[in-house]
Amino acid sequence: MAKNIQSxxxxxxxxxxxxxxxxxxxxxxxxxxxxxxxxxxRTPMVEQTSLFSRAIGEITDVVEKEMYTFDDRDGDSxxxxxxxxxxxxxxxxxxxxxxxxxxxxxxxxxxxxxxxPQKGRYRxxxxxxVEVFGLxxxxxxxxxxxxxxxxxxxxGIDKYVSLELNSIGSLAARAKYRQVLVTFLQQYENKLDEDxxxxxxxxxxxxxxxxxxxxxxxxxxxxxxxxxxxDDSKQHFAILCKLLDATGVKYRINQRLVRxxxxxxxxxxxxxxxxxxxxxxxCAGGRYDGLVEQLDGRSTSAVGFAMGMERIVLLVRQINPDxxxxxxxxxxxxxxxGETSQQAILVLAEKIRDELPGLKLMTHHGGGNIKKKLxxxxxYQAKIALILGEDxxxxxxVTIKDLxxxxxxxxxxxQIAIRLxxxxx
Length: 425
Ligand code: ATP
Ligand code: MG
Hints:
By secondary structure, the chain is an alpha+beta fold.
């Protein structure tokens, strides 16, 4: 027998039972974004491969190992977006949204990375990201972080997440530190495994992030980033810390936080949790003042972050399962009785929906006796059943059965909206 076709490994369906969590979380976060003056941007899920290799950097995990890249029928190399900062910058340059302007943007959508699927790590996952263009000061960095802190409070997970913060300075400062770090790490080259020896020649700052305990031990004696920061970045960072202190956002300065993508400078941050096992980073970002220019736009300051929706949904479900109160699908279930035609109930249903647009009204389809139809109404946890029999049709009435009390009455269809409103409020 042929095997059923299944979804692609690491790419999940979101079924009706799960969608309520997603929608409630998304709605809450969108409402907060609006309260800070952000606008949504939607860009394509596929971009030219060179956009990502140039923006993210050739020698990064994402570009080296994780991209879904393919040739389209013209032989152009395209890639399913692994992140969306590059896409936003591309769109911003293409449509003239950036130079000499301010933009506060957000996006929400699927991203694709060829990774080993496990809890909190998938091949298609969703990010809610924010990108701000045209603002260079630490105050906007602070405001972005404050907004994320508000997200966690509103989702009821604020006690379970913490903020790690660092400054990785200017490009020049980073180049200087990189040299010093490489010289330090070279002394121990034989202690590093193959991956890190490779890293040493390609992306040595990433070694600071290593989860390997031996490497971490060795790093205890490594030169500190802070000692190589340029003065402007130092001051930028000091003000950011002061602003966070003033608004009560707690953070830990983590000098080893460097982030995996090449385009960051100055502020970098991550929100982490202990509650999800290995996949503990729920939200990460920072400044990327050089990226617009790097992609051939005119120099524009930029700062942003991306949050992993799957990890947030997991966390909210685990910590705050009552976040989504049980929500009924149907308020009113409308059914025909006897010889009444399906046409009559569809016409009545449309009339009621015209008058009560917020009402959740489901009509019965598929026949059966009245007992079966009422059982359906119960299954959907409807509060009221409307029954349209031949008599009711003839006199322009409808029977209203309150399924909570069992009480039943006949009512004129003309006034049905008023009666339903009374019964349901
Ligand atoms: P990680 O270290 O977990 O691989 P990252 O540094 O690759 O994360 P970013 O590129 O900064 O992640 O993406 C921002 C956020 O998107 C992450 O903090 C995480 O919450 C989420 N994320 C990244 N990759 C995945 C994935 N494969 N599946 C689910 N969520 C992901
Ligand atoms: Mg990753």
